[in-house]
Amino acid sequence: MDPLEYFSYAPHIFDLILNHLSVDDILSVSLVNSAYYKVTTNSLTFRRRIKLKVTKDLLVCKSQIVEKSDRNYHNLELNLNHRFYQNIFCVLTKFNGLKSLDLKNCLLTTEEFNRIFKILTNLDELKLDDLTFEDVNPDEIKNIENLTKLRHLQMKAIPEILMHPLLIKCKNLKRLSIMQLSRKAPVDEVFKQLAEDSQFKLEQFEICDFGYYNFDQKKFGLHSFLEKSFDTLRVLEFDVWIGIASLQLVFKMPHLEKLRLYELAHADKDIDWNEVTLPCNKKIKHLNLQDVNNHKNLSSTIFKAVPKVEFIEVYALSYEDLCEIGKSCLELVELNAYFLDINDSNGAIFKENLFKNLKRCNISASDDLKQQILSRSEHERSNFENLLLVN
SUPFAM superfamilies this protein is in (predicted)? Predict the structure, then answer.
């Protein structure tokens, strides 16, 4: 008598149970018997969390196993090791109800690329990583269809010529990630075009490009692109310097909750951050800063603009940074830093008993600093000092 067998006849309850299991355990449940197999593979949890990973070896040696499978996959990853196999279309046709597709390490033609989306009509998420094209046929790219349901698109190390034709088809896109584009790519011009003719408004946007900061520091195209989603953006992640005007625009966004700013070392060298004022944004709860050490007062300027932030992560913290965070970010709950540039001679930060609401502090303090804190009695230590001793 299997106590779970009753629930196999109540799929919605069974699905709730599966949702509490790990991926490995979900697969194990599907192997109990044929009834369990059917109800598990048809569940919403299975379709949402289980991904079929198709590699070169699977296509060459075991493609029949995939084609005969009666599992209802909604997530598929194709990692083809820079060769496109025609029998991949059989796999795509079998799982034409796919919601998520990862296409990686592939050499193909634009006709084959277009054909993929003629088969897959219900994609919600698409990730393109390291694609190489034998040809570039503009007509094939312009004719790509069935991307109107796409809500999440990630493009990594792909030809920049694909950016505009793809994005212009994504009328309901909510999340966009662009990574590792060529240093020679006219990225800002693409953003300018998209600001003029795209129909989507983003909730989340990430750009991580090792060469983008070499272009015009004013970033007019990016600025216009961000303005288009001004009222809808909730998450922004920049691994590039975006310029003062765009940074000020970001801090005006009414619904922004999470902000990551990397590569700030490449900010304009002539900026006097004492003269820069950022709009105060009380919606930002999560802040991640990196590479600010080349610009004095840059981090302090940013901390002043996020009075309601609850989570801060930075690479290094100075005494001045701690003072500013303690005075400006009164609702801070968690503080993380890889490097703490402070000693007990800066003890005023502790005596003022700042960071009263801080609950977690992941900072590696030096042994000398810890010994100096320990030299004081427990009732003399601040909340921040006690949290430092935990690490």
Answer: RNI-like
Question: What is the domain-level CATH number for residue 74?
Answer: 3.80.10.10
Does residue 382 lie in a domain region? Answer: yes
- pTM of the prediction? 0.85
> 66 is in which domain, residue-wise?
50-173
Segment 197-253, tens digit of pLDDT:
999 999 999 988 655 444 445 678 889 999 999 999 999 999 888 888 899 999 999
Q: To which H or E segment does residue 192 belong? A: helix 187-197
Indicate if 144 and 113 belong to the same structural domain. Answer: yes
Burial of 307 (0-12, 13-18, 19+ CB in 10 A): middle
User: Is 336:286 a contact under the CB 8 Å cutoff?
Assistant: no
Residues whose CB falls within 8 Å of the CB of residue 197, separated by 6 or more in sequence, listed in order: 168
Share of the chain above pLDDT 70, in %: 86
Among 137, 155, 173, the domain boundary falls at 173
328: nearest Cα among 377, 361, 362, 287:
287
Domain match, 89 and 135 both = yes
The contacts of residue 14 (CB under 8 Å, 6+ apart) are 4, 7, 8, 39, 40, 43
Q: Which one-letter amino acid corresponds to residue 274?
A: N
Radius of gyration of the chain (CA): 26
Please write the tens of the pLDDT for every residue from 74-97.
888 888 777 777 878 888 888 888
To the nearest 10°, the Cα dihedral for 186, 188, 193, 196?
Answer: -170
> What CA–CA distance (Å, rounded) separates 206 from 103?
19
**Is position 202 within any domain?**
no
Report the alpha-carbon distance of residue 79 to residue 106 in Å, rounded. Answer: 7
Domain match, 122 and 35 both: no
Q: What Å distances lie between residue 298 and 271, 306, 324, CA to CA?
A: 9, 13, 11
Query: What total number of domains does the chain contain?
Result: 3
In a domain, 208, yes or no: no
